[in-house]
Predict the structure.
Amino acid sequence: MISPSTRVAALHDNPQLLKGMLRGIEKEGLRVDGEGNLALSAHPAVLGSALTNSRITTDYSESLLELITTTHDTVEGLLGELLDTHRYVARNLGTELIWNQSMPAHLPDEADIPIAWYGTSNTGMLKHVYRRGLAERYGKSMQCIAGVHYNFSLPDQAWDLLEAGGDPAGDASIEQKRSRGYMAAIRNFTRYSWLLMYLFGASPAVSRRFLQGSSHPLAQLDPDTLYLPHATSLRMSDLGYQNKAQSELQLCYNDIDTFVTRMYKAVTLPWPAYQAIGTHRDGQWIQLNTNVLQIENEYYSSIRPKRTTGRCERPVTALAARGVQYIEVRCMDIDPYSPIGISETASRFLDAFLLFCAFEPSPYFAGTGTCGNSRENFSRVVKEGRKPGLQLARPDGHPDSGRPVALQGWGAELLERIEPYAEALDAAHGGEQYRQAVRAQRLKLEDSEQTPSARLLRELRESRATLHEYTLRQSRQHCEALRSGELDAAAARTLAELAASSLQEQAAIEGSDRESFDDYVARYQAALKPPRQA
C-alpha cells in the first residue's frame, strides 16, 4: 500500500478519481396536518406508488415520506435534485406539511399510528408485515423518527491506488479490493463519527408526547418539551431504542466475510422474546419471523455497507457474492434550518470526511472485531457532547487507545487532518467551497453555542415556544418557500411521469402474483443462503 504521507498527493495527481465520487441522499420527513399533528391520511396518490416510485416513497410509517435522489458527481446536482423533489411534494400535499425536525410531531395513541402500506401484492405485503414486526418489537412511535441518509461511493481507481505497491492478500479482484476499502472506511467512520454528531446533531429535545408516559432521564424545558442540556442528537441516542436482542448483536467491520457471517446469524437465529410474540395473531401475519432480525435492514446502525440487490435477493447474500458497492451514512439529523433537511456546507463536509475515512490508515479492531470504545464515544457525544470539559477515549487502533482526550482538542486535530482532503476536492472541482465547509466547523469546536443543537435550545428559550410550536412555525415557513420557489418544468414532468408510471407498475405486480403470501415468504426466506454458499 502507498504510505499515508503520499495519499493526499496521489489524490491531487488523480483529479478524475475525485470527480468520479458519487453521492446520493434518502431524506425522511413526516407528513403532518396544519397544526403539526401526525397526518393519518394515506400516502397521496398524486405522489405515486410507495412500492414502485424510485424517487418518492415511505419509510416505516405511512406518514413518513422518504425522498430519494439519484447519484450525483457534484454537490450542486445532488441538492438541486433534492430541492426539486421537495418543491414537487410540497405543491402536492394540499394542507399538509413536511415536519422539519428529526424527532416526531405530536403523535396519536400508538394504535392509531399508521404502518406503511404498499398494496396487496406479495412484494408489498412483505414490506408491510416487516413493519408490523417493527411495531411489535420497538413500538410504533419509533417508526416516526426521521433522518437524512447519505450514500457515498468512490470509483474503483481509488482501491487500486490505495493498494498500490503490494496487495496484503496477494492477487485480489477489484471486488475484494473494493470491499476491503469500504470496510476500512467504515472502521474509521466508527472511530470518528462522534464528530458528525457534535457538529451537525440537531435533536437535543423531544415532545413529551413522544415518550407517552415511559420512564426517561430527560429534563423538562417547558410543559411540552423534554431535553438533555448538553445533548446533540437524542435521535441517535438509546432513547426508545433499548432492545436487548440488538444490543447483543456485535457485528465486525474488520472484513466483509466476518461481517456477513454475523449478519447471517442474526437473521436466522431465533430470539426467545420474539418467539413468544409469534408470527401470527388472529390469523394475520404480525412479523416475518422470530429471529434476532427479521431482515438485514432491521439492524440499527450509524453506517452500513451496501450492495444493490435483485428481486427477492437478500442483502447479506448479495454482499457475500459480490462485495460492497457503496456505504450508507445513517446518523445525520434533519437540519431544521434547511427546507430540504441538509445544507450545502454539511454535504461538502461529509464528502471530505468520508474521503478522509477511506484514505487514512484504518487498523483492524482488536479482539472480536467490534468497535471497542468508539461506541461509547458516540453515545457520550449524542447525550452530552456540549458538556464543558467532556473527555472521550482514544479509539481502538490508536497508539494511546483508551486514554482520555478532550473533545475540543481531538475535534480540532481531526479537522486539521480532514482539511487536506477538502483541498484535494477543491483542486478537482475548482473553488474553495470544500475548504470553507471544513473551516466553518472550527467555530463550533471553539464555541459549542454555535452548534445546531445549542442554537435550537437557545431559540426555544428565547421564543418561549415549545419544540412543537417552534418546529411547526419553521415547517410552515419552509413549506411556503418550497411552494413559491420555481420548479424546473422538466423536473416537474419527470416526477409526475414517475408517479403515474409507478401506479401502473404496482397494479401490474399485483395482477401478476400467482402464489400465496405464505409461499412467497417461504421463498424469500429460502433465498437467504449461508455466506459460504452465496
About this structure: Residues 489-512 form the longest helix (24 residues).
